[in-house]
Amino acid sequence: MRASRSFLRLRARPGFQCDSRVAVLAYHSIHPAQERASTTPEAFKSHVRWLTENCTVIPLAEVRDKAHAKDVGRPSVAITFDDGFADNYDHALPILLDHGLPATFFITTGLVNGDERVAERFSRLLRMDLADVEGLSWSQVREIQAEGMAIGAHTVTHPNLVALEPAAAKREIEVSKLELEDRLGVAVEVFAYPFGKPKHHFTDTTIRLVQDSGFSNAVAVHHRAVSSEDRRYCIPRFAVANDGISLLARKVRGEKDGLGVWQQTAPRWLSHFVSPSHSFRGETSLMKLPEDG
Length: 293
What we know:
The protein is α/β, with parallel strands linked by helices.
């Protein structure tokens, strides 16, 4: 009953009406052949065309203001990419530029630095050959930024932050921010939690670490639209996984919010069963301690 009442309250809010919704999409790899990619370049083009025709695509930095706005219009959508795969530069960036759309790219700095242990982690998680795991180069990250895209941090080695002691989690969060700022020469203000599920991959403790590290916003993978009541350190996003236009439209328009409400209201032990493969409790930090050399 509690979940049902919460669902009804969420659906009644202005931010959850179809014509004034604010949704954030979370992509990962955009690749023509990899089965574990979020989608192919051709499918991403079709997504972008649909979004351009039916929505207002906005920078991620504007979603909370839009969620608080009272005006009614087309749904507002922000586009994000996690991890920092090279195909984001090869395939996603040109499509975004062709349509004049903004996006935010969250960078796992260990992947961009060529840390083989981080590449091996992605190879195992994505069930793909290690040779096919290719991160962006720093010159590509700088070019993405120069083209007007926003850059965010996504830790150094992509652990489950809940599985770490606070000091280790803070190192993953802070070091990724500091390196990005050093490499890009700008403040990096937004963070994406690895794996991203509330309660399973970040908690109030994690949120405090992100806040204390100097970030102004953070995003999750939480299957619903943005509400005016959402805290700035747990902005929900819809994961995109080989979505056809019909499924993408249902997410944007509000027909798939039920899973997000379940994530938010169910006890931790019960919400785990919604997606048991996404606990990743064993994904600890791969960062070397100073004494490791």
